[in-house]
Amino acid sequence: MSFSYAKYSGFFSSDLLPSLGTKINHETKLRKYIISPLDLRYRAWEMFLLFLVIYTAWITPFEFAFLICKIDALVIFDNIVNCFFAIDIFLNFFMAYLDKESYILVDDPKKIAIRYLSTWFIFDVCSTVPFHDFLFIDHKESGVGFKLLSMLRLWRLRRVSALFARLEKDIRFNYFWTRYAKLISVTLFAVHCAGCFNYVIADRYPDTKRTWIGAANPNFKEDSLWDRYITSLYWSIVTLTTTGYGDLHAENTREMLFDIFYMLFNLGLTSYIIGNMTNLVVHWTGYTRNFRDNVEAAQEFAKRNQLSPRIQDQVLSHICLKFKTESLQQKETMNVLPKAIRSSIAHYLFLPIVQNVSLFRGISRDLLFQLVPEMEAEYYPPKEDVILQNESQTDFYIIVSGALDLLVDIDGREQIIGKAVAGESFGEIGVLLGRPQPYAVRTTEISQILCLSRKTFLKILRDNQEDERIIMRNLIQKLQGFGGFDNVDEESDPSLVFNNCSHVSKQDTSTNPSDLISINIQTLEARTKKQVENEGESCGCKLQTVLDHSVDPKGRIEMTQSPPERRWKEDQLDTERGGNKSIHEVPCCSYSGNRSQTGAKGGKSIKKRVTIHKRNNINSLQEQNGKLIILPDTLEELFRMAGQRFGEYNLKKVVNAEDVEIDEIDVIRDGDHLFFLSTDCSCVETSTM
């Protein structure tokens, strides 16, 4: 139910929500003497009339069957009731209505009058006018024909139908019990009317002994009004339920015809009741049945595939949490709303959390407003893995509530290296650096987590270059706070630091796990061009990007470039940037001679990686499956290593992808395409990682 509309709706509302422009027009002042259908005073008046309708539904068939002449007090009360409905007819000429084409409230008195006169006016008048009084007929002498005119008052029952329609849409009332009350009301009214009509047939039949009630009690007319009414209800209920004791049955043709139509009506009514009750019960128990089916299927799957107990627990926990949160229907509710409303809800719920995330510190509010609506909230049960170690990450996560453990696998044993709580983020390494996840993330309690896909995140960043650089600066600061993920001698290139997160020397496993996995990123801050040139004289340093992707002069991330394009872009950036310091620049040194030698500031070298492939035709560069190796210190060692890998020791020449011969080891770059030529012109090809 619309929250802003709640004060004008609810029990007295005509619908669950105002029809499109209704709320706007409700706030607009209507013409003088025009009544709004949403006015609470008019809704109270309608509820008062409903009690009178219930009285009319009972007294009208009862008077028709059992009262030969009306009691004076009853006549007076009936006329008072008729007066109230006459007042309602008068009010309908001043009642604004909702136009079905424009969906706005119409308050023109002329249009209101024409609409009412052409719809329900005639029926309302016929159900209100006391024909006996207007025709000056004595109540004691009125016949069946004039009594039938009083049955027109049952037209008022349409108000009860509208009431149940409103209650079924009102979320404050249980739908099951509302439908159940409606079915009971329909059944009781059918029983009451059938009993009264069947008694009229017996009462008006010439031979009272040949009637359904006279055959059992010839002097039934001398019985009290209460006894005759209860006997009629008894017959009606026994017939409706198809019990058929046989003590009361049709004795003449009139009664037989009535019984035939009544039993045919009972077939439809019984089917209607059984169908509705079945749907209500099935809907009520549907969630539990689906839950049991899912649990049984999961257990059968785990047994068939011999899953470990920990994985089985995670599967069952996920199913249980989904069962508990399924009734919330948060995604379903959000999906049916327009984008603007979804964005407003997301900003209201999650913007305070997102703007305090360290990765987004300092970015513009416009970027936050673009990111928040794209995030989806997910619930995770305790002890469930959100991210696995070395997983190719495709999503970025922000913790809304709960707590998580950061774990790594060391020689088959999981070690906790940190914790994450509400307001922190994870997954940025895989999303922004494009590297496998260096650690696993597991919940310790039920947690609500915002999820943002990598594709959407990077697409938004490409359109916000300044904020992109701020986010990368925040990421570098976060990595500096973390440190590297092992004690291996790795420079500040994140592509190597995070790829080696699970590599820990077995001989050091006796030390504290936190020390083994402590980060050693000491030189992540960008250096000036002058510093790099000074180091390049002795170690041939070149600049790489933190993302290990191409970065244009404006800092724009390009994620889809091929390795040759990336290398060309990096060379161009080295020339164009000059001496400008950039947060994207990280030294990656290539040394001549001993590759364990440190740079000018004592930085540690980074091993170059190549993958070699065999080529049988000198004119063909077709790639085959090869071997990934670390580039050695000399060409002789490179030839010897290639010969060992492929069992061929007559390799004499090496060329790159452009078929240019390589004479010095220092010109080989990380990820180059190399081709080894033997004396018989066979070759081995190297493919880029």
TrEMBL record:
Q: Which cellular components does GO assign to this protein?
A: monoatomic ion channel complex
The record ties this protein, via Gene3D superfamilies, to: 1.10.287.70, Jelly Rolls
Task: Indicate the secretion signal residues.
Answer: none
Membrane-spanning ranges: 47-68, 80-98, 180-202, 260-284
Kindly state which keywords UniProt assigns to this record, in alphabetical order: Ion channel, Ion transport, Membrane, Potassium, Potassium channel, Potassium transport, Transmembrane, Transmembrane helix, Transport, Voltage-gated channel
Q: Domain named KHA: which ranges?
A: 609-689
Task: Provide a Gene Ontology MF annotation, just one.
Answer: voltage-gated potassium channel activity
Q: Which Pfam families match?
A: cNMP_binding (PF00027), Ion_trans (PF00520), KHA (PF11834)
Domain (Cyclic nucleotide-binding) spans 359-478
Start-end of Basic and acidic residues biased regions: 564-580
The keyword Transmembrane appears for this protein: yes
Q: How does it sit in the membrane?
A: Multi-pass membrane protein
- Region Disordered, as annotated, extends over 554-580
Protein location: Membrane
Family annotation (InterPro entries): cNMP-bd_dom, cNMP-bd_dom_sf, Ion_trans_dom, K_chnl_volt-dep_EAG/ELK/ERG, KAT/AKT, KHA_dom, RmlC-like_jellyroll
Question: What family does the Swiss-Prot or TrEMBL record give for this protein?
Answer: Belongs to the potassium channel family. Plant (TC 1.A.1.4) subfamily.
Its quaternary organisation is: The potassium channel is composed of a homo- or heterotetrameric complex of pore-forming subunits.
What role does this protein play? Potassium channel.
In the record's own words, the domains note is: The KHA domain (rich in hydrophobic and acidic residues) present in the C-terminal part is likely to be important for tetramerization.
List the protein's name. Potassium channel
